[in-house]
């Protein structure tokens, strides 16, 4: 390939990946795979998902935090859901003025969070969100995320430890 071809391909990849800089599309809800023209990373993600509690009563809000392992492990984009098996459960709440995240409808309003279009200097190393299990939910859930360092470097299926929902 010529130098021009490399540059043209790089520009096309970045332009395509930037197309979802406004957040994950609803088409990514089920498999959580962003529609970037590159595959996900195969290495362990340099991020973790932690929760404010390991047991929560149905209908009671709790916090979930995504954080990079090092200060340089920032997030350009995310898709975060709570899953009971393959089902997306519960509801997130956000400050409407949140500069990084927005609610996404993955079958029900607010049952997922994705990123907003933002300047790179607003990438986050840590982001905390409030999630509430529905009144009729019980059993065990896990939070699952796709986390993008940038448009070409992202991890799919980052999971929290289990959280038990009680009545």
From TrEMBL:
The protein's matches in CDD domains, at most eight in alphabetical order, are given as: Reeler
Asked if Signal is a keyword of the record, the answer is yes
Cited PROSITE patterns:
REELIN (PS51019)
Q: Name all Reelin domain ranges.
A: 6-167
Pfam families, per database record = Reeler
Has UniProt tagged this entry with the keyword Flavoprotein?
no
Which cell locations does it reside in?
Secreted
Q: Name one GO cellular component term.
A: membrane
Query: Which UniProt key words apply to this protein?
Result: Antibiotic, Antimicrobial, Disulfide bond, Immunity, Innate immunity, Secreted, Signal
Q: Which InterPro entries match?
A: Ferric-chelate_Red/DefProt (IPR051237), Reeler_dom (IPR002861), Reeler_sf (IPR042307)
The transmembrane residues are none
What's a GO biological-process term for it? defense response to protozoan
Q: Which residues form the signal peptide?
A: 1-19
Family matches, as Gene3D superfamilies: Reeler domain
**Can you tell me which family this protein belongs to?**
Belongs to the insect defense protein family.
Q: Sorted alphabetically, which PANTHER family does this protein's record hold?
A: CELL WALL INTEGRITY AND STRESS RESPONSE COMPONENT 4-LIKE-RELATED, CYTOCHROME B561/FERRIC REDUCTASE TRANSMEMBRANE
Identify this protein by name.
Defense protein Hdd11
Q: Which organism's genome codes for this protein?
A: Papilio xuthus (Asian swallowtail butterfly)
């Amino acid at each position: 390939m010529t130098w021009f071809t490399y540059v043209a391909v790089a520009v096309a990849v970045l332009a395509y990946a930037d197309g979802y800089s406004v957040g994950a599309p609803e088409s990514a809800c089920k498999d959580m795979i962003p529609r970037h023209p590159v595959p996900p990373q195969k290495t362990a993600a340099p991020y973790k998902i932690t929760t404010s509690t390991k047991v929560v009563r149905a209908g009671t809000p709790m916090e979930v935090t995504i954080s990079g392992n090092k200060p340089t492990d920032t997030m350009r984009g995310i898709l975060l859901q709570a899953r009971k098996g393959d089902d997306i459960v519960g509801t997130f709440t956000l400050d409407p003025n949140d500069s990084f995240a927005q609610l996404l409808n993955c079958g029900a309003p607010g049952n997922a969070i994705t990123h907003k279009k933002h300047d790179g200097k607003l990438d986050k190393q840590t982001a905390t969100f409030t999630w509430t299990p529905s009144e009729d939910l019980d059993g065990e859930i896990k939070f699952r995320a796709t986390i993008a360092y940038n448009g070409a470097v992202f991890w799919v299926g980052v999971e929290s430890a289990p959280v038990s929902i009680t009545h």
